[in-house]
Amino acid sequence: MKGHLHPLTVVMQDAVKIFESLGFSVATGPEMEDGWHNFDALNVPKDHPARDMQDTLFIKKSDDEEVVMRTHTSSVQIRYMEKFIKDGNKPPLAVIAPGKVFRNEATDSTHEIQFHQIEGLMVGENISLANLKGVLLEFFKKFFGGDVEIRLRPGYFPFVEPGVEVDLKFNGKWLEVLGAGMVHPEVLNAVGIDPEKYQGFAFGIGVDRMVMMKYNVPDVRMFYNGDLRVVEQF
Amino acid sequence: MKISYNWLQSYFDAEIPTPERVEEILSVRSFEPEGIEVVNGDSVLDFDVLPNRAHDALSHRGIARELSAVLGESLKTDRYRRRDVEKVSDVVDVDVQDVEKCRRYISRVIRGVKISETPNWLKDQLVAIGQKSINNVVDSTNYVMFDLGQPLHAFDMDKLSGGIVVRNAHEGEEIVTLTGEEKSLTNDDLVIADEESPLAVAGIKGGKKAEVDAGTVNIVLESANFNPLSTRQTSRRVGIQTDSSKRFENKPTCELALEAMERVTDLIVELCPDAKIGPVVDIYPNKEEKAEVSVSLEDINSVVGVEISKEKVSEIFDSLELPHTEDGEVFTVSVPDFRMDIRIKQDLIEEVARMYGFENIPATLPEGFYNPALNKIFYYSGVIRQLLVEQGFFEVYTYNFWDKGEVKTLNAIASDKGYLRPSLHRGMKESIEKNVNNRDLLGVEEINIFEIGTVFIEGGEYVALGLGLTDIVHGNKKTKKDAVERLEKTLGLLSEKMGVDITKHQSLSEVDDSGVIEFNLSKLVEDLPEPIDDYSFSESGKAFVFKNFSLQPSISRDVSVWLPSRDSKPELEEILSGLELSVREPRMIDEFEKEGRVSYLYRLVFQADDRTLTDEEINAVMGPVYEEINSKGDWELR
Fold first, then answer.
1. B539 in a domain, yes or no?
2. Taking CB atoms and an 8 Å limit, are B545 and A60 in contact across chains?
3. What's the rounded Cα separation, in Å, for the pair B240 and B230?
4. Could you tell me which residues come within 8 angstroms of residue B485 by beta carbon, excluding any fewer than 6 positions away?
5. Are B312 and B360 in contact (CB under 8 A)?
6. Which residue ranges form the domains of chain A, and what is each CATH number?
7. Are B147 and B270 in a shared domain?
8. What is the value of pTM for the model shown?
9. Which of B360, B393, B411 is the last residue in one of the domains?
10. B269-283: string of b/e by CB count within 10 Å (b at 16+)?
11. Of B233, B251, B283, which one is at a domain's C-terminal end?
12. pLDDT averaged over chain B?
């Protein structure tokens, strides 16, 4: 008798396959991250109100050292770009970072202290908002199967400018599914990419949310409680 | 930010669209809406104003400006008027001792105010957005804050001993706030004080000492600008967050303070017929710098990815009150004081993109020049997952947080989640315990699970692979042996597939008392070659609808029957299938042949959504089944 993959794996593997077909590599990185990769390099300076947008779980916090449980896998993109440049490469680059992230917040059916994200990044000489729209639309079409509609709205994340929220029309209703935007020049500067020459987009997909939407799973906590009555359905 | 629809309408001569329409318009151009509620006949819209715009748009005017830009309707300029009023020359001395923390301080004396109830037109608007009405003077300061975004404060002048000093608190200095809380301050906290003691925690909350109350006749108004960082730190330290502190934390322009002082004066003078006003005292040593930002049409179009005309861009800047000059195809914007967020060309591109309309931007795939590279750990994890599923293992994801470990978190959400897991053992053990009684429900003989997850040790982390086979520990002699064989076989297959001995760094005797054994996957993968083939997994295929399962206990029943031959097996299965309250297909546990007959053992599982089933209920279901089996001449129930 065969066993079963966990739904989060199923969806992450599907996403990896789809993004691979669109030219994206996969990057992984540490879950316990330093403040530089999780915040500063992403244009979230110390004591900026934007650091409050995410409830961070700290491991160390002093004036000269900060270690956190990563609040997003954008930190992996920073590591990826650092290495990419250090190895002597030049954009274009396209990468997704699937992985577990953490928020120090009360849990309920749609919030968990740990969940999964796929952050995506594409940098080149002429990468545009229209390309962001194109890539996301293509992803959702393949992921959900069939025709889908997406809509961009103004949003704000310190690491992108312009920043957008992306809604997906699902069962006739617009649902907010992810945040995205054009990579902020400070982020490119931080990893040694010339923002006058290169530009690109970034996005962050909530994997748990995608599983819940695609398969109609009612509670995010079902993914982490080890109950095989959930897993056996996938 | 709560926005009263009536208040918003007061900014326009023309009738604005319905509240629902306003919400929709602004949601795709400006801010995310969080709902509309009706309060006393007014509609209150709520927008999530994020940090980039909190310096100007936590105000009715900020939202009105956005609406004006989208609708192309200009804003009224005469919402406030100053009636003729007697002037006095009174001032209070103001001494700003820390110009880093207090970037501007404007004060004005008003004599002869009459404290009274606030007129309804003003009160209703404040109440609509969830504010409590206090009195005409305090409500005026609040109104202007929610109108323009500038926090203001009024002190009872006759309660002051001497002039006003803006200084750091003495270590341990105390203040009783307007709402009666006693707060102890530190030398890092800025206060507004008189010559004796603090009157307010600067930019955060007023104190009891100089409170404006029913007996107040003369007031000192404050319109200041406090440092965002120090305001935020003090607000955290004393544990008080207010509409005022929230605004200062987001760095409103210092230029707003003077305008707000004049507007609140207009309002107080209107509400207090006998008021006499003094001159403004304005301490503003370091004037804010004006910003100019340039962007070319080419940059705009390259980032947005669509051809927008020069005229359209110019029109958008005009609609947003962004004065600009054009040199060929380069725009230079003289950024108005209220748009502190516009500092680089990307900020201007955002303004163009959102006002042009994201819906008008096409979805275009980028040119294909990317060669995706494979990720080693993701690749090998995929290989392992696939093999383990083939071997009958279920995958679990368990929590990273435990009550013990080598790495401690500083701000744990719960006392039993204060540490990062040093291994996968505990989570997997809990999963095994949770599932072991559900074996029949799951249709399995034993619980075989695996997890691939990060674990944390002093000074680092690595990815671990955990395998859990319950029967290694809990099985009987035979199943124990089977489980050990299964583990050995699985590890053999894994080693073969990955090309490395998976037990290289590990002894098989390290199975814990739940049947869990763990491997350092990061270390194993280090020695492996970079993958060449594509990922081993493929797309999962079509979605299905997840089935909610009952959380009630289940009951299992075994049925053992002698059949004359294997040919009768389908008939038996049909009898056992689809029974009332059964939740799984009948599962064959055993089959053997003896003296020309075949013995079958099937397990049935029953469960209800809403209750624990009783034996009687199951007997009632099984009765007819037994009868039917007995009615077959050559079948025999064992």
1. no
2. no
3. 13
4. none
5. no
6. 7-128+199-231 (3.30.930.10)
7. yes
8. 0.90
9. B360
10. bbbbeebbbbebbeb
11. B283
12. 93
Dihedral-angle region of residue B246 (phi above 0 means left; psi in -120 to 50 means alpha; beta otherwise): alpha
- Nearest Cα to Cα of residue A90 among A188, A193, A184: A193
Residues B617 and B561 both lie in one domain: yes
Q: Please tell me the distance from the alpha carbon of residue B219 to that of residue B110, in angstroms, as a whole number.
A: 5
Q: Pick B27's closest partner by Cβ from A59, A93, A153.
A: A153
* B546 vs A61, A94, A215: nearest CB: A215
Alpha carbons B175 and B185: distance in angstroms, whole number:
8
Q: How far is the C-alpha of B556 from the C-alpha of B348, rounded, in Å?
A: 68
Pairing of strands A66-69, A58-61: antiparallel
Q: What is the 3-state secondary structure (H, E, C) of B29-74?
A: HCCEEEEEEEECCEEEEEEECCCCCCCCCCCHHHHHHHHHHHHCCC
The two tokens of residue A58 are 């700290």
* Nearest chain A residue (CA) to B233: A47
Instruction: Report the residue of chain A nearest B428, measured CA to CA.
Output: A226
Same domain? B123 vs B250: yes
Interface membership of B415 toward A (CB under 8 Å): no
Residue B612 sits in a domain whose CATH number is 3.30.70.380
Contacts of B589 in chain A (CB under 8 A): none
Q: In what order do the strands lie in the sheet with B291-296?
A: B291-296, B330-335, B324-327
Q: Both ends of chain B: CA-CA distance in Å?
A: 73
The residues, any chain, with a CB within 8 Å of residue B522's CB and separated by 6 or more, are B377, B462, B463, B464
Assess if residue B125 is contained within a domain.
yes
| CATH code of B311's domain | 3.30.56.10
Nearest to B341 by CA among A208, A130, A180, A156: A156
Closest in B369, B388, B442 to A232, CB measured:
B442
Nearby residues of B282 by Cβ (< 8 Å), 6 or more positions away? B104, B105, B106, B258
Instruction: Verify that B273 and B295 share a domain, yes or no.
Output: no
Arithmetic mean of pLDDT, B208-237: 95
Residue B390 shares a structural domain with residue B500: yes
Nearest chain A residue to B413 by CA distance is A104
Closest Cβ opposite residue B370 in set A4, A23, A114: A23
Radius of gyration, CA atoms only, chain B: 37
Q: Which of B587, B552, B582 is nearest to B443 (CA)?
A: B587
B267 and B296 fall within a common domain: no
The CATH number of residue B421's host domain is 3.30.930.10
The whole-angstrom distance between B78's CA and the closest CA on chain A is 31
Confidence check: pLDDT of B507 > 80: no
* pLDDT, position A225: 93
Mean pLDDT of A34-56: 83
Residue of B342, B346, B371 to mutate, testing the A interface (most A Cβ within 10 Å of its Cβ): B346
CB contacts under 8 A, B 384-403 vs A, are: 385, 388-401
Q: What CATH code is carried by the domain that includes residue B103?
A: 3.50.40.10
In chain B, how many domains are there? 5
ipTM of predicted complex: 0.95
Full residue range of the structural domain in which residue B591 is found: 555-637
Q: Is residue B410 less than 8 Å (CB to CB) from chain A?
A: yes
Tell me which residues of chain B, numbers 274 to 303, contact chain A at a CB-CB cutoff of 8 Å. 302-303
- Same domain, yes or no: B391 and B326: no
User: CB-CB: which of A10, A58, A128 is closest to B302?
Assistant: A128
**pLDDT tens-digit series, residues A50-95:** 676 668 999 988 878 899 999 999 999 999 999 999 999 999 999 9
Cα(A181)–Cα(A163) distance, rounded to whole angstroms?
Answer: 4
Interface test with A, best of B232, B429, B537 (most A CBs within 10 A): B537
Residues B210, B330, single domain; the answer is: no
3-state secondary structure of B520: strand
Which three-class secondary structure state does DSSP give residue A201? Answer: strand
Is A215's CB within 8 Å of B358's CB?
A: no
